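Board notes, transcribed. Complex of a protein with zinc ion.
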Amino acid sequence: MVNIGLSTGMFHKFYGDEEINRRISHISRWDVDVVEILFSRLFMLNIPINPENKEFLKKKKVTIHAPFFVNEGYTFCMLGHDEIKKLVSIGKDLNAEYIVIHPNQVTDLSILSDYDFKFVFENIKPKLTDTYFLENMKGILDKFPDVGFALDPGHSKHLPMDEIIALTKKIKDLREVHCRIYDSKDFIANGDKTHSYLKTLNANVLIEGVEDFTHVHEVIKKMREIVR
Ligand SMILES: [Zn+2]
């Protein structure tokens, strides 16, 4: 069975970065299996999750997405021991399944083996650093056999969809696939044929964005039908 999740990142236009608890409690209105807590900026790692949200999260699969921006502006941050330590302690506290990391933003990937926690690398957009393009991820992951993979097809738009799927199927430990819904009404009415591959991948499907919040319930329902 494919689990369907929402990311707290879906609220970035609506709630401030500091409103991480408000984002989680908004997600609690919907029928999801997985909640991905996105700590997009470093300072967010210091915001405690409130008891009410912790109670809600206990009933769900929880995943964590590591920061990628510094505290203000859009400069990418780097993650070293201090940040990884905080992420792992949040992950353990929330009983998270794994931590998603952009591998180009870790000062030294070998430090991850110092932690008793599951990490998952996400493929990176072309132009950032070709080392972590989808085309190269299998090679990287072969060097880190304990690390899983998160596919963001939106980060590999230069490739045709069948090639994205073929490359992803070569990777052993695929944990999640990111997707965005650009037109909820159309998606609910017609589905999206490009999503039918999701059921063949056996990974969490993480909806990172929808363009409005009035139809999220139906979007999740439709996604369940597609991946069933
Ligand atoms: Zn990401």
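The CA atoms of residues 2 and 84 lie 28 Å apart. Residues 65, 100, 102, 122 surround zinc ion (CB under 6 Å).
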